[in-house]
């Protein structure tokens, strides 16, 4: 009765390195003389990173997690004595959340990307942003559970959950099941996040032939799903599930995704097309609906390229994908959301801060959990730890919701219960935290 989560790969083979898996749930001066001296030796590197939040000025230099030394002289930024991109009129250089940021005299912030020494526009990452409260504790489920919608509502309320994610296509059988869920959720005052489960493959299993064909398909399924669910209070749609982590879209599943070149240039337009189509299809029915695009691991390379209309080969001027909510999957094997590695082993960065500053929309972690091989006691401790981290950052990092995977997996690999019976350690850890930490 219940789908089981399928991993394409195993767990990490080497300490600190990823063997990634795909989930299927459901981007003037100021101490110039000192800076110039510090930038004089291109080969000099320091061992310890500067404190988080270090700023030039008043600091004369910043050391990042890789030991590179950043300086500012006459409005130009240097790394180990060499210029980094074409910077000018820079008034502030900031080390924050594992990234280097700068602000010009006009007040615009930029963040240093990992590819081609690009500086990408953003907001000040130090500014706290809090989403609207009321849907923070979330859970994943499936449309084909044998539980009645009313039973799902009852189980969620017992765990203090206020939001629930379920996937659906435009198949009438799936849609009818999710409509019934939506009706029950509307009556109960709970939030239903609907994953529109459309991808880059056609009915024969081949990659869709063109961006325009993919767009049309995405538009059709997006408008069909929104038409069916609009009357029942659904306002949040996640447009696609792990589309950056398909055989057709990622070059190698071991890549962390922090570079656009980690992704397939030839098939990129098809992925972009189906994403744009789903968003536009939903908006054609519900102009006020919120649409999310989903990423995994450290896929800011993909997110930045889509947001800015770039291809993995670096070319620009392509259609932009703009979403209302950034959604992310953050399983234990992928690393800590607030200190995630950029190459599977190297220094990490605060992904949630990056998303907040780069895209300016709320973040929903639509899937998170430990690995399937973990014991119940381990999973319970992991749940307590992660909920504490997510909860502590919700008002500073614009985190709208964190959605545990999954309500029932048919066994104890991921589910928090089996056939309606709680699995003690994870269930108790989850409910203990939610009952003592209000979603306000």
TrEMBL record:
Residues in the signal sequence: none
What Gene3D superfamilies does the record tag this protein with?
Glycosidases
**InterPro entries xrefs:** GH, TAT_signal
Q: Which residues cross the membrane?
A: none
**What is the protein named?**
Glycoside hydrolase family 5 domain-containing protein
Which species does this protein come from?
A: Paraburkholderia caledonica
């Amino acid at each position: 009765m219940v789908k089981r989560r399928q991993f394409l790969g195993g767990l990490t083979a080497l300490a600190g390195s990823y063997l990634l898996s795909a989930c299927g749930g459901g981007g003037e001066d100021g101490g110039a003389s000192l800076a110039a001296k510090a930038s004089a030796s291109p080969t000099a590197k320091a061992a310890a990173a500067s404190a988080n939040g270090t700023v030039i000025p008043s600091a004369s230099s910043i050391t990042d997690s890789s030991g590179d030394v950043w300086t500012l002289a006459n409005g130009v930024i240097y790394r180990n004595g060499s210029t980094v991109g074409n910077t000018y009129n820079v008034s502030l250089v900031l080390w924050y959340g594992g990234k280097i940021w700068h602000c010009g005299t006009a007040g615009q912030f930029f963040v240093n990307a990992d590819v081609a020494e690009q500086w990408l526009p953003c907001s000040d990452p130090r500014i706290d942003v809090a989403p609207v409260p009321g849907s923070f504790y979330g859970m994943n489920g499936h449309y084909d559970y044998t539980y009645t919608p009313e039973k799902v509502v009852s189980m969620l309320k017992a765990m203090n959950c206020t939001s629930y994610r379920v996937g659906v296509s435009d198949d009438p059988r799936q849609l009818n099941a999710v409509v019934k869920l939506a009706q029950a959720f509307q009556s109960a005052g709970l939030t239903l996040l609907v994953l529109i489960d459309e991808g880059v493959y056609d009915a024969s299993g081949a990659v869709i032939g063109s961006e325009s064909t993919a767009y049309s398909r995405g538009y059709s399924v997006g408008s069909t799903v929104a038409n069916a669910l609009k009357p029942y209070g659904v306002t949040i749609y996640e447009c696609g599930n792990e589309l950056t982590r398909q055989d057709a879209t990622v070059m190698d599943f071991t890549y962390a995704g922090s570079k656009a070149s980690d992704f397939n240039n030839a098939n990129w337009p098809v992925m972009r097309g189906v994403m744009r189509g789903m968003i536009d299809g939903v908006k054609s029915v519900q102009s006020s609906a919120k649409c999310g695009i989903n990423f995994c691991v450290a896929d800011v390379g993909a997110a930045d390229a889509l947001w800015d209309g770039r291809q993995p080969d670096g070319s620009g001027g392509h259609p932009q994908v703009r979403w209302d909510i950034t959604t992310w999957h953050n399983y234990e094997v992928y690393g800590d959301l607030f200190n995630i590695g950029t190459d599977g082993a190297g220094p990490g960065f605060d992904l949630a801060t990056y998303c907040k500053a780069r895209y300016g929309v709320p973040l929903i972690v639509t899937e998170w959990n430990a690995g399937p091989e973990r014991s119940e006691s381990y999973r319970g401790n992991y749940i307590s730890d992660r909920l504490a981290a997510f909860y502590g950052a919700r008002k500073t990092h614009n985190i709208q919701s964190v959605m545990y995977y999954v309500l029932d997996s048919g066994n104890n690999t991921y589910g928090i219960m089996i056939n309606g019976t709680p699995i003690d350690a994870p269930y108790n850890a989850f409910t203990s935290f939610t009952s003592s930490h209000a979603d306000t």
